[in-house]
Amino acid sequence: MTETIRLTMAQALTRFMSRQMTVIDGRKVPIFAGVWAIFGHGNVAGVGEALYQVREELPTYRAHNEQAMAHAAIAFAKASFRRRFMAATSSIGPGATNMVTAAALAHVNRLPVLLLPGDVFANRAPDPVLQQVESFGDGTISANDAFRPVSRYFDRITRPEQIIPALQRAMQVLTDPADCGPVTLSLCQDVQAEAFDYPQSFFAERVWEPRRPRPDVRELEVAATALRGAEKPVIIAGGGVLYSEAAATLQAFAEKHGIPVMETNAGKSSLPHDHPLNMGSIGVTGSSASNLLAEQADVVLAVGSRLQDFTTGSWALFKAEGVKVVGLNAQLFDAGKHRALPLVADARAGLEGLEEGLDGWKSPDNWVSKAKAAKADWLEAAKAVTDPTNALPSDAQVIGAVHRARGSKATVVCASGGLPGELHKLWPAGAPGSYHLEYGYSTMGYEIAGGLGVKLARPDDDVVVMVGDGSYMMMNSEIATSVMLGVKLTIVVLDNRGFGCINRLQMATGGANFNNLFKDTRHQLLPEIDFAAHAASMGAVARKAASIAELERALKEAEADDRTSVIVIDTDPLISTEAGGHWWDVAVPEVSPRPTVNDARKKYEEALRVRRLVS
């Protein structure tokens, strides 16, 4: 007879989560590092009580914003190279829909997170319950259906026993290298509290270790043949290199075969910045070295990259006639993009397989010499823009100051706006994972919450969050959470009084300065926001730096602070690094009464003619 235990659905959920394990560096650890929770009537009685019962094995963290807590959970998974992850639970209604943006972020970036929003009553007795969104034409729909397109797996739990297959499927998705992404289990609030006789075997400890799919023999031979015939090969290192823990394998492969490496935002830090074959960033925010080589490349080996438009310069970057792309990726969807030769495999296993098939082949010496000369030129250009001047500082000069004060051992965190482009070009990343950018979904507001998740995953790292005033204003509440948890961050706020990045894009496409910088918006009074005072009010140590020199001093002083430090500096909204970079497809109006827009349209049409359009 099967042994059972009577538990509520929520108790079964939390008990199951606490029994899932993984192995890191030979040590068995819980695969769920904890649960972020903001309680409301839709989860406090069910999930809240269940979490209380397992609070020692499965820690619960209280946040200030549902979207932010999900960002923190996602950042934890990214910083853990997807080996461990977290969950986030909210009440029904706005608490749940606040997490939809975070779900989209995780979906785009292929990052695991378990989302547990409360839902309506399955029995429908109190309909419409508080915060219920009613569909006039479908009684089965709730607001949580908004999670469906941004979840790798979605389920609505309307009976307590349904949690058994749902959790099994959830774990398979969360730990799968190809299907990895957000899982949403929508928890009807009455069902959370309903009991069932669960089999004891459901709660047996299970160890999940990463699957490393090997490449298909035929695909491997096609890819190896393409590389053996290359005169000007390059490697694009994407996030999959880091998630596969393949950085050392990639470095050895590049060195043995003389192939320059360029990095996406997700893949940056795959090789140390100072490695002679690391050409730096690629694409729209690329270094001059990477983009020069990419334009001439005859074979592009894309490792663990989804090849989005910033990486490919909207598919206008690769200009050589007959250029071939080899897509080494665990997910066929990504491996076969734009008629690439697919090599479906784990990044490390795929590189090891290619190694066997290349049989001592190496790229021509003159190609490697060209790469090293191009990198030397780029480093000079990068130094010129990061060195301090007496002018109102640029983002690049702030980046230079942060690096001089904290060095490449620091882990830098950022997202969206102009800063990611500058950091992608200019930040000298050290160890794998020391560069943490959310640029897949380009989510303003991720930065501070993301920094919190990174620090929880890597408590010994010096975590430096760089954030613009626009993103800070969108989401800053987790400063208070970091202070409350004793999780120390260094946060550098660059105040250019508006959305400087989009203002520059507006100007570049012929537009008028309109509705981006405060001075160009409809206003009666221009705000003078005291970000230092605001951060101090949430418990942080706050400083305002009047110059680059003061910023460097403040960064040094902040190392001794016993809690999160926030340093604010005014910056110039109009300056960005012109060196490097590439065209990006931002559609310009065909018809306008303004000559500047018409001129921009002509340039846009010229650029379209050279784009490499393939299906």
Automatic annotation (TrEMBL):
GO molecular function per UniProt: 3D-(3,5/4)-trihydroxycyclohexane-1,2-dione hydrolase activity; acetolactate synthase activity; flavin adenine dinucleotide binding; magnesium ion binding; thiamine pyrophosphate binding
InterPro entries per record: DHS-like_NAD/FAD-binding_dom, Myo_inos_IolD, THDP-binding, Thiamin_PyroP_enz_cen_dom, Thiamin_PyroP_enz_TPP-bd_dom, TPP-bd_CS, TPP_enz, TPP_enzyme_TPP-bd
Domain (Thiamine pyrophosphate enzyme central) ranges: 221-354
EC number: 3.7.1.22
GO biological process, one term: isoleucine biosynthetic process
Keywords per UniProt: Hydrolase, Thiamine pyrophosphate
EC class of the enzyme, as a word: hydrolase
Entries under SUPFAM superfamilies matching the protein: DHS-like NAD/FAD-binding domain, Thiamin diphosphate-binding fold (THDP-binding)
Coiled coil: none
One cellular component term from this protein's GO annotations in UniProt: acetolactate synthase complex
Highest rank taxon of the organism: Bacteria
Domain Thiamine pyrophosphate enzyme TPP-binding, chain residue ranges per copy: 420-569
Thiamine pyrophosphate enzyme N-terminal TPP-binding domain location: 49-131
Family affiliation: Belongs to the TPP enzyme family.
Full protein name: 3D-(3,5/4)-trihydroxycyclohexane-1,2-dione acylhydrolase (Decyclizing)
Species of the source: Pseudaminobacter soli
